[in-house]
Design a protein that fits this description.
Layout: H1 2-9, H2 19-29, E1 35-38, E2 44-48, E3 53-60, E4 65-71, E5 77-82, H3 87-90, E6 94-98, E7 104-110, E8 131-133, H4 139-144, E9 152-155, E10 160-161, E11 168-171, H5 174-188, H6 194-197, E12 198-205, H7 213-220, E13 226-234, E14 254-259, H8 270-282, E15 287-291, H9 299-302, E16 311-318, E17 326-329, H10 330-345
Parallel strand pairs: 3-12, 3-13, 13-16, 14-15
Antiparallel strand pairs: 1-2, 2-12, 4-5, 4-9, 5-8, 6-7, 6-9, 7-8, 10-11, 11-17, 14-16
The structure holds zinc ion.
């Protein structure tokens, strides 16, 4: 799983600009699926099997990113956020921009050094205070390098193991390349009998971070009996977070999303939740139940699409979510994959 996740994590995929991630995924799954297509919003939809029961398994491809808003005369670039950044974590990061020729342009997200700051100034940092320095002499040089307003950039970060761990990894965009990696691994290792009993639509969606958009259009076009959405959820197991605020932990098993955003996101139907718990207990798969206070995933859209799709939201607990140093457990990813297989076997969505 590590090599696959590394490839996905280090790919470039801001919301609406997911092509590189999509190409990596296409290449990984093309020999394992019967049909593969891309829809209007760029969602990648792969069909496997010819059975009666129709199951959608979904993960979003996009990552939070930045977009060029303005280039000043000295060649410094102002940006806006594409997705939920905390401006403080952007400061001092290396970034990589793609211009319209798809060339990689490296830069840094600079800020005023602490030496020059007034008291408390560092606490008030906003995205608009951040400037991207690509090392150009002036605006003309920036333009000569084919950088334009509207170009997108992400953090330049690489996936590594932490410490001497063979389980915990850290990098950017684990939200939600983790979900993509789980789906790819599942496609490659689908139990044989599944192909006769089910028709699977594996959907790699776009623009989740900007309002769950790809899930909306892709699910609308498919007629399915069950949806399983795979994403990451904020772990609360680091210093400074009270357990009563977030109690899911990295390395402690697959997360079932009971409700998201205190019910403003997914509200899992009690019957499906009870069945899911029963299935995981019987299969001895460690699991954690999450009642989320903030943040929603595509599950929130899938379950109210058309006449409603019975939906299970599955997550992998991730530390430092929406930062360039997200941390998650490969073991949890394996457990999530196993959980999906068991839930499908047990027809979890059947009411
Ligand atoms: Zn996500």
């Amino acid at each position: 799983m590590y090599d696959l996740l590394k490839k996905l994590s280090e790919s470039f995929g801001p919301s609406g600009y997911e092509k590189e991630v999509r190409d990596v995924i296409k290449n990984e799954i093309k020999d394992y699926v019967e049909e593969i297509k891309e829809d209007v919003l760029g969602n990648l939809i792969a069909k496997v099997g010819n059975g009666k029961k129709k199951v959608l398994v979904e993960a979003h491809m996009d990552e939070i990113a930045l977009m060029v808003k303005h280039i000043d005369d000295k060649g410094f670039i102002s940006v806006v956020s594409l997705g939920g950044w905390d401006a403080r974590v952007l400061l001092g990061q290396k970034v990589v921009l793609r211009n319209y020729k798809n060339e990689k342009i490296y830069g840094v997200a600079g800020s005023k050094p602490v030496h020059l700051m007034e008291k408390n100034e560092e606490k008030e940092i906003k995205i608009k205070d951040i400037f991207i320095d690509v090392g150009a002499k002036d605006k003309k040089e920036v333009e000569k390098w084919n950088i334009k307003v509207g170009d997108v950039l992400v953090i330049d970060a690489h996936l590594t193991y932490l410490g001497k761990s063979e389980d915990l990894v850290s990098g950017k965009a684990l939200d939600n390349r983790i979900g993509c990696a789980i789906l790819i691994d599942l496609i490659k290792n689908l139990p044989n009998e599944f192909k006769d009993n089910y028709t699977f639509y594996f959907v790699f969606t776009t623009q989740e971070e900007l309002g769950l958009k790809g899930a909306r259009t892709s699910a609308f076009d498919l007629d399915v009996d069950c949806a399983i959405s795979v994403d990451t959820s904020p772990a609360g197991d680091t210093p400074g977070i009270e357990e009563k605020i977030a109690d899911i932990k990295v390395g402690k098993g697959v997360v079932i999303d009971v409700v998201q955003a205190e019910g403003y996101g997914l509200v899992m139907r009690r019957e499906i939740l009870d069945k899911a718990i029963d299935v995981l207990e019987k299969a001895k798969i460690p699991y954690q139940l999450e009642v989320g206070s903030g943040g929603v995933s595509n599950a929130a859209i899938l379950y109210i699409t058309k006449k409603g799709i019975p939906t299970v939201g599955i997550s992998v607990a991730t530390r430092n979510l929406h930062t360039p140093v997200e941390v998650a457990s490969l073991k949890d990813m394996e457990l999530a994959k196993k959980a999906i297989i068991e839930l499908i076997k047990a027809d979890v969505c059947k009411l």
